[in-house]
Amino acid sequence: MIIDAHSHVHDPVESHLAALDAAGVDRAVLFGTRAHPERAVDLESLRREMGVLDNALAGGVTAVDSYRTAWAELHRTLAAHPDRFVGFGSVPVDLPEDDIATLIDREVVGRGLRGIGELTPPAGAAGRIEPVLAAAHDHGGLPVVVHGYAPTTAADLRALSRLATRYPKVPLVISQLGGTNWMAAIELVRDTPSMYLELSTANIIFAVRLAIREIPERTLFGSDAPYGDPVLARTTVERVTPPGEVRELVLGGNLSRILGVL
To answer: What pTM does this model have?
Structure first.
């Protein structure tokens, strides 16, 4: 089974389904989102949508109420297409620990979602996800996905690695190959057994090749759609791996093991 480990709710969802079909992807992990670049029709409207994303990544959107629209969009999509999407739920990371645990219990576990993410702590604040990891541990080791591209820094990646060692039963996924810090990300994931590296948005082909070579059982095919494209992301993995076991692990086997299903 081919599983895209990283995608966001599309408007309309039919455009996402068409992209998955074109790539031969069976299922996709789906995150909620407040930004919808796929709605843009010109540069001005794209700037507006990307401004929403930039604000979120900078930590400017933290109130629970600001998440409700994204949660509602996510649940509508999951209900309409349960055979294509695996739902993950995000939560604010600047709340008190008890509030974070309550939200995860209610909005993630209580709604039947399979993991937590994509979390977006601001630069220099990766430590804020520790209460999320603690709650994920308490729920049997739910996988947790953290934004890996800018503004995430190399210091943030190191902080995430240290946190992962405290919660070894929680699969901690660094998305987008760690962005421009991809060499550090590969090393940290390689040396931290509970960490995984998702490969979307890579702009250097040998970064993907080296990541898979170093950690074949802990690298995950992902597109970050709509920012990336499932066809291109799958082609990238297949370009740097021969047919066989390793390719099958990266394209879905590793994620199937994390989720314990599929």
So the answer is: 0.94
